[in-house]
Amino acid sequence: MATLIDTIRNDPRSPRRGLQGVGAEPVRSAEPVNDRELRSDYEARRHIFPSRVHGAFRRIKWTLVALLLGIYWGTPWIRWDRGPAAPDQAVLLDLARRRFYFFGIEIWPQEFYYVAGLLIMAALGLFLVTSVAGRAWCGYACPQTVWTDLFIAVERLVEGDRNARAKLDASPWTLTKIRKRLTLWSLWLVIAAATGGAWVFYFADAPTLLVDLVSGTAAPVAYTTVALLAATTFWLAGFMREQVCTYMCPWPRIQGAMLDEHSLIVTYNDWRGEPRSRHAKKAIAAGRDVGDCVDCNACVAACPMGIDIRNGQQLECITCALCIDACNRIMEKVGKPRGLVSYSTLADYERHAQTAATLGRDTARAEQRGPSISKVLRPRTILYFGLWATIGVAMLVALAARGEIGMTVLHDRAPLFTTLSDGSVRNGYELKLVNKAGEPRSLALAIQGLPDATMWTAENGERTRSAVVDVPPDSVRDLRVFVLRPAANAAPADFAFVLTDPRSNETVVEDARFEAKEVTRK
Amino acid sequence: MSNIGADEGFPRVPESEPHRGEIDQPTGTATTGHEWDGIKELNTPMPRWWLWVFYATHVWALVYIVLFPAIPLLKDSTTGLLGWHSRSEVAEEIDTAAVARADQFERIRNLPIEQVADDETLRNLAVRGGESAFKVNCVQCHGADAAGGIGFANLNDDDWIWGGSLEAIEQTIAHGVRHAGDDETRLSEMPAFGRDGMLDREQIAAVTRHVLSLSGAGPADPAGATVFADNCAACHGASGEGNRDVGAPRLSDAVWLYSSDPAAIRAQIHNPKHGAMPSWSQRLDPATVKQLAIYVHSLGGGEEEGSREASAGAID
User: Fold this and answer.
1) What's the superkingdom here (chain A) (predicted)?
2) What is the 3-state secondary structure (H, E, C) of A396-436?
């Protein structure tokens, strides 16, 4: 029987709700913690419509977008003459022939440590930049930021600025909306296809591949790569945007360890802005304390990450500095000094806040007038720079000393040695002779040590101690070499193969081992 | 009951605290109400696209299972609608490679072996192909390193029983040694001097000493030399230089087919063992036999046609 007790128990406003029985000792709520009603496990992405921004940082960002996209799209078309034996593309990852060309540098697969060195330098460079200038990479140079910037610019061109875009997004699917969205997506697709298209040009001769791609005769893997990269560009720059930085990218998680109190971060100077007020004159008239922030939300509207910088440093912030531009424009309009939102180190911010608290806001503002300069020289930056520079110099030295000839020696594993009719002992070696030059070379191969030993090659059976071997341009020649010691001296010993380029006098010495029975003959 | 484990720090539902709508002040995020030693779990929702990506992986897996071999059965697996199989793909690649090399194999088959060896491309192909064929057909006796063993010839050295030129090696491989059923097989037989009573124990011991002295491994033995001249020199030569026409091994060198141990030499004179090798032309095609010959020749002991060493018996 439904009673008054049940009514009370089920009434959400009732303080007695959830009691197991009236009159009994009150039992505390035993609601399931993971009640569906209480929490949403998944959150749909909320659309962000960053407004148009004018200012110094926006100009820097446009310049960088143009520069970086120009480098990306232009590089494969730069030509670089390397003679007839090698391709004339300045930057080329020739996977089929296993060569990496970078202007005057040609790297073979076994020299991939140069690329590893470059990657280590890139990582250390990122650490260095982050410890000095915060997430400058994220805000200015990361492909996700650059392409998102480009896509937002196209979006603004087609659909209008923030309010128009938000309105269109919220509106039902009218013909106008369909037309605008199709236009927008088509333009995005063109950019995305061009992005994917440019990528494959780094792996083949660009002019040839372009003709092949257009005429439909390129390799299927080229089309697959273009399609995959076009799809990810379209998706990541068009629809995912800030989700990539917030959820997919590991870099924001590493930031915390890279930043310290001397790193530049985009800072809302709350000691200056608070208490914020939309009606400053009225508030001042009423005798209330009023900060510089007019609570216009221009910084929020400008933010491509959809955060409010006034809440302090946040994981989502990529320090693109657009809120600084947006706020400075407002500050100029209301006749207040710029820099309410500014690049500032934590140390500076705390100093200013201290001044504001003790000597007043005006003194602190005067103190803030000079831009906050990151304290560049500190142990961590010196360490990062030292490591970065050391690897850089080591790579430059290695590149400068990189020879054009090379040799590896592999002793036969089975049989280790062969006894011949006259009791002499023969060893076999696989030599790989490398000629990195663009023209054929005649190299001198000789034995160093073992004065009693003679050698011959599989091609030329003449017993000798030095031979001339022709190696074709830009290639490796396999050479089978036999070394013989007479019966009287047929004991194990160390010696070396010496390869000399008579033209440049470049010499490569490779240690080798002569194997034989350990017993000494009497 | 409900607080069992709480003292040990296990997560528990804090019955004593109302968690509904609790907001973590520093982050402004709701908590789940779960608490570990005072640390509360924030209820940060996953992005919904993540959920869709998660579902998409399931769809991908299902499509994959339908299209490709996926579910193991007792003997086989499901075949998949596309009919793709990694082994058939490998088979196709091998066929493609075979077609691409077909005319080179044709040339190897048709050209005399000397000309094959003179052509650098064909020689390289033959050495590699011969190496593969050797590993399948020859290593059982001659060893992976082609160094043989007692009774099995070492193919690396310069001592050849039946000749070390390309043509001689090809002939030996093609028709075998003492292979019944091939008229052209290499054939020779050494008498069983001891078993058949042609030499007595003392004579065998003497001739063994003489044989060892031929390669400087022992002192001269005049009695043995007489026995050798009367019984052995006809085939092995007056100074033990051997005779390739009859497959009589050279006895004056450092290479021994059945060991240089005096007991082994005595045993071989008393009742000789005769090795045999199949006639490979009956099992392999001529191109493969040529490749094998070129490979064996390349191991280091190969002789030039017409060279001093190649002419049988003419050993200094």
Assistant:
1) Bacteria
2) HHHHHCCCCEEEEEEECCCCCCEECCCCCEEEEEEEEEEEC
